[in-house]
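REQUEST ID: PR-0412
SUBMITTED BY: lab tech R.K.
PRIORITY: routine
TASK: structure prediction, single protein chain
INPUT:
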Amino acid sequence: MPAGIHLKTARTFRPDSPELYEKAKAAVGEVGSTMNDHINGFLRWLAHETDELPARPPAKDERKTESP
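STATUS: complete
OUTPUT:
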């Protein structure tokens, strides 16, 4: 495929803040996923293509109780 030609139209997602983006990036990394996979997962759930939401890491409060 020649450079600059894409099979899918680009879409732009803009989080509300840089902090939200960084938190989300860390969260998808914790569950072994990517931002793209999670956004598509949420959109599939929203469009009723699935009833399953993408995985998310435990809340910080839950992490403390899991530590020995």
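NOTES: The radius of gyration is 16 Å.
REVIEWED BY: pending
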